[in-house]
Amino acid sequence: QVQLVESGGGVVQPGGSLWLSCAASGDIFSVTVMGWYRQAPGKQRELVARIPRIGTATYADSVKGRATISRDDVNNMVYLRMNSLKPEDTAVYFCQAGGRQIYWGRGTQVTVSS
After folding, report:
1. Percentage of the chain modeled with pLDDT above 70
2. What is the pLDDT of residue 29?
3. Do the strands 91-99 and 31-39 form a parallel or antiparallel pair, or are they unpaired?
4. pLDDT digit string (tens) for 42-71?
5. 64, CA 20 to 30 Å: which among 14, 16, 42, 81?
6. d(CA 84, CA 75)
7. How far apart are CA 88 and CA 103, in angstroms?
8. What is d(CA 35, CA 49) in angstroms, rounded to the nearest whole number?
9. β-pair type (102-104, 10-12)
């Protein structure tokens, strides 16, 4: 089992930035890919960014150029930084860990509003 705990959500003004953190614990050696997903009200959960243990990160077109995903395998953390936030970035952001199984955190709310 892998446990994931997100932090860093909140209310951000349009044009602002966010910094989300995800702490992983448990059977982390089985995790090969970590990612951030989001789900807006009435919409399906969608990929924001993912980063493999080895290789390059990938991003959704909607956040490309505005988002950076990074991971710290020493401290079992994954981060998401996004700039130039828009109201349509409002969603619950979930951390995901993938390997033998898929694990999800409970999510953190991000609201982009003036």
Report:
1. 100
2. 84
3. antiparallel
4. 999 999 999 999 989 999 999 999 999 999
5. 42
6. 28
7. 25
8. 6
9. unpaired
Helical H runs in 58-109? none
Among candidate residues 79, 76, 54, 53, the one with its CA nearest the CA of residue 67: 79
What is the token pair recorded at 111?
Answer: 């609201």
Nearest one of 102, 103, 105 to 80, comparing CA atoms = 105
DSSP string across 12-68: E-TT--EEEEEEEEESGGGEEEEEEEEE-TTS--EEEEEEESSS--EE-TTTTTTEE
11-36 pLDDT, tens per residue? 999 999 999 999 999 988 888 999 99
The pLDDT of residue 28? 84
